[in-house]
């Protein structure tokens, strides 16, 4: 989870004509730690370098353990990710991917996944 003073970095997904938002992230590769994967995914999906803070949530999703960390952007250019899902128009056979900023107070008004992390961040 990357944020500035009032906003959270998310990926806007449109799939099967449904719009929802997810926190940047992805699979852990080889001998990566969850923190290594989070750092790599921030670069691939958002085009930024990050310094991670504490882990905010661990949950099971589709048989995998998913880790969510807080983080600060320390370099790069937001929106310039080069991961497979971000290349070209950000459109794949799994829908579209678009890096966006969302105001923290708006998180509970949209379909933000996982909902538990949105609730942690907003106190709701």
Topology:
Elements: E1 2-3, E2 7-15, E3 18-22, H1 34-46, E4 48-61, E5 64-76, E6 91-92, E7 95-103, E8 112-113, H2 115-122
Parallel strand pairs: 3-8
Antiparallel strand pairs: 1-2, 2-3, 2-7, 4-5, 6-7
Distance between the termini: 17 Å
The CATH homologous superfamily name equals: Nucleoside Triphosphate Pyrophosphohydrolase
How many structural domains does the protein architecture include?
1
Quickly name the level 1 CATH class. Answer: Alpha Beta
Describe this structure in words.
With 124 residues, the protein is an alpha+beta fold. The chain has one domain: Alpha-Beta Complex (Nucleoside Triphosphate Pyrophosphohydrolase). The chain contains two helices and eight strands, in the order βββαβββββα. It has helices at residues 34-46, 115-122, and strands spanning 2-3, 7-15, 18-22, 48-61, 64-76, 91-92, 95-103, 112-113. The strands form two sheets. Strands 1, 2, 3, 6, 7 and 8 form a six-stranded mixed β-sheet that branches. The longest helix is centred in the N-terminal third of the chain and has 13 residues, at 34-46. The chain is globular. The protein starts with a strand and ends with a helix. The model has no long low-confidence stretch (mean pLDDT 89).
Task: Provide a short characterization of the protein structure.
The protein is an alpha+beta fold and 124 residues long. 17% of the residues lie in helices and 45% in strands.
Distinctive features:
2 helices, about 45% strand, two-stranded antiparallel sheet, about 120 residues, globular, about 15% helix, alpha+beta
């Amino acid at each position: 989870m990357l944020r500035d003073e009032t906003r959270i970095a998310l990926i806007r997904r449109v799939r099967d004509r449904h719009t929802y938002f997810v926190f940047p992230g992805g699979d852990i590769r080889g001998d990566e730690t969850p923190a290594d994967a989070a750092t790599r995914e921030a670069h691939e999906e958002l085009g930024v370098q990050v310094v991670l803070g504490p882990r905010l949530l661990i949950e099971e999703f589709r048989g995998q353990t998913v880790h969510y960390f807080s983080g600060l952007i320390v370099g790069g250019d937001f929106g310039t990710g080069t991961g497979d899902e971000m290349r070209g128009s950000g459109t794949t056979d799994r829908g579209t991917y678009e890096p966006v900023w969302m105001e923290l107070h708006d998180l509970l008004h949209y379909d933000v996944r996982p909902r538990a992390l949105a609730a942690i961040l907003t106190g709701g």
